Amino acid sequence: MTIEERKHLITVREEAWKTKGKGAANDSTQFTVAGRMVKKGLASPSAITPTASPICNKTRGTTPISKPLEDIEARPDMQLESDLKLDRLETFLRRLNNKVGGMQETILSVTGKSVKEVMKLDDDETFAKFYRSMDDTVPRSPVELEEDFDVIFDPYVPKLTSSVAEHKRAVRPKRRVQASKNPLKMLAARDDLLQEYTEQRLNVAFMESKRMKVEKMSSNSNFSEVTLAGLASKENFSSVSLRSVNLTEQNSNNSALPYKKLMLMQVKGRRHVQTRLVEPRASSLNSGDCFLLLSPHHCFLWVGEFANVIEKAKASELATLIQTKRELGCRATYIQTIEEGINTHTHAAKDFWKLLGGQTSYQSAGDPKEDELYETAIIETNCTYRLMDDKLVPDDDFWGKIPKCSLLQSKEVLVFDFGSEVYVWHGKEVTLAQRKIAFQLAKHLWNGTFDYENCDINPLDPGECNPLIPRKGQGRPDWAIFGRLTEHNETILFKEKFLDWTELKRPNEKNASELAQQKDDPRAEVKPYDVTRMVPVPQTTAGTVLDGVNVGRGYGLVEGDDRRQFEIASVSVDVWHILEFDYSRLPKQSIGQFHEGDAYVVKWKYMVSTSVGSRQKGEHAVRVAGKERCVYFFWQGRQSTVSEKGTSALMTVELDEERGAQVQVLQGKEPPCFLQCFQGGMVVHSGRREEEEENAQSEWRLYCVRGEVPVEGNLLEVACHCSSLRSRTSMVVLNVNKALIYLWHGCKAQAHTKEVGRTAANKIKEQCPLEAGLHSSSKVTIHECDEGSEPLGFWDALGRRDRKAYDCMLQDPGNFNFTPRLFILSSSSGDFSATEFMYPARDPSVVNAMPFLQEDLYSAPQPALFLVDNHHEVYLWQGWWPIENKITGSARIRWASDRKSAMETVLQYCRGKSIKKPPPKSYLIHAGLEPLTFTNMFPSWEHREDIAEITETDTEVSNQITLVEDVLAKLCKTIYPLADLLARPLPEGVDPLKLEIYLTDEDFEFALDMTREEYSALPAWKQVNLKKAKGLF
Fold first, then answer.
1. Where is each HP domain found (predicted)?
2. Containing domain of residue 1000, as a range?
């Protein structure tokens, strides 16, 4: 075969390769947007070749938007609008300056004035007495000289013999010079001199002493000078009122927020994708781009059918950042994605069209080459101004160009006009006056005329779908944005306009082996927690640091950081009751009486003394005078209102005259130093203090004993019913009318718990508090009884004898000398972890039967997972899905993954804590349907019927508890029939994004018309499209 024949054969084969196959073009074009449009019949094959874009007849030689003929400056006849936030800031600074100007302690000032006279000199009398006259001491006699000077001098002195000597000039005697006057007399003769002066005394000494005190305080303290100055300042909080904040609305003093309540953003481009604000209406959409629709509660991602890959990736990234960081006033809990032609008839799509004013027709996709031309055309409409000499001057370097981050300097004020978005940006070193003038000039630009007639595109209407928006006009539309931004506080919509703005991304800490393992096993996403870090029991003792000193439990010997020992002793305790916006001091007999619906301020004054030498018996102990200190606790009941909680914090600051420490204390979370203030006499009553009539309706009252040390004991009022009894603690039953107390001890109560109960009962007997319904003249009688041997009067208080109403342990031979443990299991931080709840008044040396409250479980963000270790059994408590939270597919996937990891963690924990013995049983329980054995681990329990209804409707559960290993076996099921995977809802534990991995090989080939090997060879996007078409997505 000759060379010519071989060349001809190659040419023929090349032409045959171009024409054969599924498409008329090769792989480089048939899978592009243009190729997809040709397949759909929406474009001709010529669309694949470069053609002019229908969006504009742009040529490469056109110029950007025209610059204004004159700079924008303030004139007397111009009405300029100011920013409310800047005005308030200016007012605040003016008030602050006035306040500082009136503070005599911080500036040099005159503290006193006095007039002083100058001594007047009597010259004639004073000097005459002090000095003697010269005339009396020196005799004067006339001297007559008749001889010549030559005769008088020595004759041997050489004389002038030259001719010069003959011409000696006779020297005339000097004229008589007037004698100088007496300067003192001259001063005395002047009438412009004052004979007195005013002496002024300054506050230099006071300021110096104050400085020395501050310097001394700072040298002995770990706080900074600013902190010490704040603690030393005196403020009046009596006139302060709390502001009600509604989280659903955006409250701000800024009259130029850089976002709107409803925004539609178009994501379009190929090289540097442009994100621009467009009119929020359905006609603004098109099939060739992506759009983001934002509202305060929704974040929609609308993906056009022919949007390119770069636009999809950029839109998805923006939606994720906006939703996670709550940018642009959007507080949506999840992203709702709407793909054109796939899921346009769902409930999310209905909400999407409703926000846009209804579903109407919109534009189809433009030319495939339109994106790059759009980028160039829209960038040329950018306008950048600088503030120079109180004028807005166009920036020649970035006019009609894409801005860069080098523009944004700390001392610069810039105005960016992007058509539908106008921003005033200023650095952090810009003065307030410059900020105000820039805002006013930018507002004038916003309200002025705009002209885009010479541009290839109108940024206010890039799709030319609204004839009411001209290329030249006055003022911007209502949906456009006029925003004020500061350095380091820019919005993501503003950042997208810049060429080189980069966000710091979290580095990927996973190594290559972990990534490869996840790729091989798509279900191995969340791993269980390492139980070796959970099993060991912490041995740390509770303590509280006040004013830099660890006071321990508030009494006895404590050890400082320098290993020195200190002794803590109480001096006095005062309590104030907080009303809505006022407070009142409680009498002495009411100290220690709290209500769960109120808030209180407790002042504890204590003494810190140094321990010297070895400690001996009390009478021989060496005591050194210590330093008296105080702390203010603001105790907040679990049923107290938000106003009372805020008022208690403010009143704490106002009452704190000693500038002591201020500590917030929540009900049930009291530290030991707080509990010991009442020496075992703290009682928490139900209801509110001002509702005494309602509180005193019942004759009997029931209290649960809490605490392990008698001086730290406290009583919690519970419902007076058999269901409130607990076999692991002691209870106090009080009859108000008869002044009778039954001290009931559970059969599994510890000895120290019984002693705490006795101390608490004796405190009630001594104080006879009015809050409990007693009077000062009451003679209280205490009867002590054990579980199983109660008198008849005891059951009269509880209504009837019903041991099944609570978890009675009389027949349980087990040992209960252990403290329960509580862990919260969550993957909110990225990795699945377990965090243990620590009781604030814990003491590892003694057993605490009930260290936790029901609020610990129910106040956590739901749905939550808790591991409760009751030694003999372990519970996995599962929360509920709140009704107000919409459940998305991704949230379901995360929840299923967390549940599986939590169950694996629970089983491993059971095996890890009982290595030599059989592991304890583990049970799964649901919120609202907890069994009696679980609820009796807490001092009180309120059945939530509303939560029970949600749990029963959301999951297939019953009142019977289930073994964790049985539920985990169902979640770990790997094979399901095809019919189960096509039905909705899906089986529990199935990942809806990976349904194909649960199919057998036969069902896989039947459902997808290919083998697993052929499916794995497809790219990811083809796999997704195939599953969508077959209903496996």
1. 970-1033
2. 978-1030
